[in-house]
Design brief:
There is one protein chain. Helix 4 runs antiparallel to helix 5 (115-142). The chain folds into two domains: 1-75; 81-146, no CATH class. It is globular, with a radius of gyration of 24 Å. The protein has helices at residues 3-35, 49-72, 85-95, 97-110, 115-142. By secondary structure, it is an all-alpha fold. The chain has five helices and no strands.
Length: 171
């Protein structure tokens, strides 16, 4: 395997590891907020699962951004003034529509609405498609590979003599 493919495989592996950690944290936090781990006394957002989902996924997104920027794409740069945060959040929110669409198709086109079907459509198929899209969008739009520096052979664009060594103007 060439160096390029090894770097790509490393990015994929690190991206998936970061995504898995962020997903586990979001799942645990969501279930704690909505279900209180089977103790109703501690279910802070039992009647607001959408808010709990949003909070849990914002925490997961924070973990994901730090891990993606600092580890998964550590050899890449970002040209965004905010370090790529806004583009990262926008891509995450946009690709969140993919598992939601898979869930909608499963329920409204295929006609299945049991918990296993919901989880397969949204959290297996939808998450796989969304994470694939995120990986490539992050690589292309947020964390870009630095361009290799090449020697310029056109003498008209570079002057080997610095201005300070040219002597007086007009002389």
């Amino acid at each position: 395997m060439g160096e390029r493919w090894e770097r790509f495989a490393g990015e994929v592996g690190r991206f998936l590891a970061v995504g898995l950690l962020a997903t586990i944290v979001a799942l645990i936090l969501f279930n704690f907020l909505v279900h209180g781990f089977n103790t109703a006394d501690f279910a802070l957002l039992n009647d607001q699962p959408e808010l709990a989902y949003l909070i849990a996924n914002l925490v997961g997104m924070t973990i994901s951004f730090g891990g993606t920027k600092g580890w998964a794409f550590r050899e890449r740069e970002t040209n965004h003034p905010d370090g790529g945060l806004a583009a990262f959040v926008l891509i995450n929110l946009a690709t969140m529509l993919i598992p939601m669409a898979c869930l909608w198709i499963s329920r409204n086109v295929v006609g299945v609405d049991d918990p296993i079907s919901d989880n397969i459509s949204a959290n297996v198929v939808g998450l796989l498609l969304a994470n694939t899209a995120r990986f490539f969008l992050f690589r292309e739009l947020v964390f870009t590979h630095p361009e290799p520096v090449t020697a310029t052979t056109d003498r008209s664009t570079t002057d080997p003599v610095p201005p300070s060594a040219r002597g007086p103007v007009g002389g």
